[in-house]
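Quick check before the chapter quiz. The format below is the same one you will see on the exam, so make sure you can read both the input and the output lines.
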Amino acid sequence: MWNHFIELAQQSGHTVYCVTAREPNKINQEEVYDSVGQLVGKDNCYFTDSRAKAKYMSRQGIQIDVWIDDLPSNVDHSKKLFRDFMDR
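Here is the expected output.
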């Protein structure tokens, strides 16, 4: 379903990015590049290393208009801060 969504978005003139909170290590990069990276391109894959995704992308000079995320809190908050919040 997501592959189809990405293709439709791109055909409609939208740029699609993969923004993950994962570390940019070789294992994570290979997994992302071999899956969604094949659709969006390696240059459109970003690894925030647990940092808040929106702020990270803004620092890259990229404004994301629509976020689709399995953990929406990671868009505005770092993964570490969210973990700390959940432990309280």
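If your answer matched, good. Residues 2-86 form one domain.
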